[in-house]
Amino acid sequence: MRSILSASRAIARQPTCTSRFQRNTLPTIATRGYAMSRPAPKLNDPSLLKDKTYVNGEWIGAKSGKTFEVHDPATGEVIGTMPEFDRADTEAAIAAAQAALPSFRKTTGRERSRLLRKWYQLMMDNADDLAKLITWENGKPLADANGEVTYAANFFEWFAEEAPRLNGATIPSSVPGNRIFTIKEPVGVVGLITPWNFPAAMVTRKIGPALAAGCTVVAKSPGETPFTAAALAELAHRAGIPKGVINIVTSDKNTPELGKTITTSPAVKKVSFTGSTGVGKLLMTDSSSTLKKLSFELGGNAPFIVFDDADLDAAVAGAVASKFRSSGQTCVCANRIYVQSGLYDRFVEKLAEKVRGFKVGYGTDEGVTHGPLISEKAIKKVTEHVSDAVSKGAQVVIGGSPLRDLGARFFEPTVIRDMKPGMKIASEETFGPVAGIFRFDTEAEVVALANDTDVGLAGYFFSRDVERVYRIAEALEVGMVGVNTGLISDPAAPFGGVKESGFGREGSVMGIDEYVVTKMVTLGNNGQPLQGSS
Ligand code: SIN
Questions:
Q1: How far is CA 384 from CA 73, 153, 198, 437, in A?
Q2: At 518, which helix (H) or strand (E)?
Q3: In angstroms, what is the span from residue 28 Cα to ligand 1's centroid?
Q4: Are 422 and 392 in contact (CB under 8 A)?
Q5: How far, CA to CA in Å, does 276 sit from each of 194, 282, 443, 457?
Q6: How many C-alpha atoms does 105 have within 13 Å on its Cβ side?
Q7: The domain 47-298: what is its CATH number?
Q8: Cβ–Cβ contacts within 10 Å for residue 135, how many?
Q9: Which residues have CB under 8 Å from 295's CB, separation 6+?
Q10: How confident is the model at residue 400 (pLDDT cuts 50, 70, 90)?
Q11: Which of 152, 298, 374, 386 could potentially form a cystine with 201 if both were Cys, beta carbons 3.0 to 4.6 Å apart?
Q12: In sequence order, what E strands does 149-232 have?
């Protein structure tokens, strides 16, 4: 769903920032059936809105002069442009990161910690503006966007605390007199490729540990949502992060070319990617030519299981949070909801009741709880999943249709009951606001169903039986388990998957390990025993 190989868009000449601020005076693109145009966000600090990108400490365009259009997902309207980088632009960004590496890797952890801490503080000081940018380009409601800014900034806070604690080890040698110790060194220049669904948090979750470790960065921001990443780069500049340490490359149509440039460059020593499993496989193939260190957070198909012994209200609240966060557009969203027979009807009823209370609309409008989906392609997939389920006997309890009067990218939050294993939702990630509810009878049956997929990112279950909690947490083939909660995202928690959901962990004390290499040093001592050893 979050493929970086997003559809090609027409390349237009680059308007100035000012013209974007005057966007509300532009006519609506009525021929495409979109809703009324929306006013551009009024930022407290308008200089956070960029139409250039940040490389080697400077704001630049593509060498070719080409740009790509960015669209408001709520209206489909063009809200601005960004440089359409190509191979040569990306190679220049990699060269800048390479040139900055020798001095940045020599900084102390404490120095890097202070930089990250400053950047964190600047994010918090500018949280309102960052949230407005997120809502503008991604569509999520302002309250969610505010939550994302805090979540995103917290990765900098977290890794500011990890940077000074990159401890190695001392290891007793098998050889008399020898000493062994290890040093954790930065892996080098890293290439980071981030998705549109969290325009801030996926950037900070990767850059935070990279900088903490002493790496320099070339980050590819998403074609759909490049403005937030650019604003973060502006704040990095203000925080005093040295030139060349952070470089942001932007593109839409050329994204596969940029991906290839990053993954095949001998100068880039590690790639971290969040996106679809399909694209992950391509990037991994390309990275093999230079044997890079990799960490991939790929697609999910999360099972969400409610046992008869669950707290029903907590399970419903968990399903609302897990399934409908960001209108179902997170890779850890519940995708298959399994409810045991004893609670099935009441769960369906209560979930539908909660969904009835949602308000869908433009992210900045008062009381809106759910915004648009990112594209018309996303609407098409969600519509297909609903009609496939209905054609095979499932029943729509609430929702089920696109909300055409709001625009081309809105879909009703939907609850469907009587789901069966052969339906598309059982095997494909919907990435939209559709809760398909399956009935089950036994624990063994539901564990088999939950694990019957090639991917394994997150899984959730609700139960008050302590023994079952351990049993199911261990039985689920996923990288992350939420027990009696639908929200597992936390900078303190290791985030990542198993199977075709990828490998590596982001956030937490483990996140920095993805950006270091362990060097071992053996000190010989001519076979002389250690002092005091017999
Ligand atoms: C994702 O959807 O890729 C990340 C979700 C999260 O961090 O909660």
A1: 20, 37, 25, 17
A2: strand 516-523
A3: 32
A4: yes
A5: 11, 10, 30, 12
A6: 20
A7: 3.40.605.10
A8: 29
A9: 270, 271, 272, 273, 496, 502, 503, 504, 505, 506, 514
A10: very high
A11: 152
A12: 170-172, 179-186, 189-193, 216-220
CB 212 within 8 A of CB 515: yes
Please tell me the distance from the alpha carbon of residue 143 to that of residue 160, in angstroms, as a whole number: 26
Give per-residue pLDDT as tens, 226-272. 999 999 999 999 999 999 999 999 999 999 999 999 999 999 999 99
Contacts of 286 (CB under 8 A, 6+ apart): 259, 260, 263, 264
Q: What is the DSSP letter of 23?
A: G
Provide the pLDDT for residue 31.
Answer: 27
Calculate the average pLDDT of the chain. 92
- Rounded to whole angstroms, the Cα distance separating 515 from 271 reads 10
Amino acid letter, 199: P
How long, in residues, is the chain?
534
Strand partners, 173: none
Work out the number of other CB atoms within 10 angstroms of the CB of residue 8: 12
Which ranges in the chain are annotated with CATH 3.40.605.10?
A: 47-298
CATH 3.40.309.10 residue ranges for the chain: 302-489
441/438 Cα distance (integer angstroms):
10
CA torsion angle 138 140 144 145 (round to 10): 30
Q: For residues 287 and 263, is the Cβ–Cβ distance under 8 A?
A: yes
Q: Around Cβ 173, how many Cβ atoms within 10 Å?
A: 15
Non-local CB neighbours of 105 within 8 Å, separated by 6+ positions? 185, 186, 188, 214, 215, 216
Compute the CA torsion angle 260, 261, 267, 271 (nearest 10 deg). Answer: -40
Rounded mean pLDDT of 392-411? 97
27 pLDDT above the threshold of 80: no
Contact predicate 430/388, CB 8 Å: no
Return the CATH class of domain 302-489.
Answer: alpha beta
Model confidence at 525, pLDDT cuts 50, 70, 90, reads confident
Count Cβ atoms below 10 Å from residue 25 Cβ, excluding itself.
10
What is the mean pLDDT of the segment spanning 104-127? 98
Task: Pick the atom of ligand 1 nearest to 274's CA.
Answer: 3
* Ligand 1 centroid distance, CA of 447 (Å): 24
How many Å lie between the centroid of ligand 1 and the Cα of residue 333? 9
Q: What's the rounded Cα separation, in Å, for the pair 418 and 497?
A: 29
Q: Is residue 489 lining ligand 1, measured as CB closer than 6 Å?
A: yes
Is the CB–ligand 1 distance for residue 197 below 6 Å? yes
> Is the distance from the beta carbon of residue 332 to the nearest atom of ligand 1 less than 6 Å?
yes
Q: Looking at residues 359-372, what average pLDDT do you find?
A: 96
- For ligand 1, atom 5, the nearest C-alpha belongs to 330
Residues 6 or more apart whose Cβ sits within 8 Å of residue 466 = none
**353 is a catalytic site residue:** no
Burial (0-12, 13-18, 19+ Cβ within 10 Å), 240: exposed
